[in-house]
Design goal:
Blueprint: E1 6-16, E2 22-26, E3 32-35, E4 50-58, E5 70-78
Parallel strand pairs: 3-5
Antiparallel strand pairs: 1-2, 1-4, 2-3, 4-5
């Protein structure tokens, strides 16, 4: 089992209509992370806000949307 590592990602929160609907964090470089919604911090899931989010990529979770690596956000701030 691989260990997950905490990381910080900065980008824009976007809503995707893929699958049943998904939330994404898209970096300025174009990397898309699917936000793990089950325990997303309150206020994170709002389209078009720019955030700096701390969390980890989850290797043990799959989703229907499959828009990018699944990013479990622990905390975030608006930028």
């Amino acid at each position: 089992m691989s260990q997950n590592h905490e990381m910080t990602v900065e980008g824009s929160v976007e809503h995707s209509t893929m699958g049943l609907g998904a939330w994404a964090l898209v970096t300025p470089e174009g990397q898309t992370y699917e936000i793990y919604q089950q325990n997303a911090p309150e206020g994170l899931l709002k389209a078009n806000q720019r955030v700096k989010a701390t969390g980890q990529v989850r290797q043990d979770v799959m989703t229907i949307a499959m828009i990018g690596p699944i990013f479990e956000v622990f905390d975030f701030e608006l930028v």
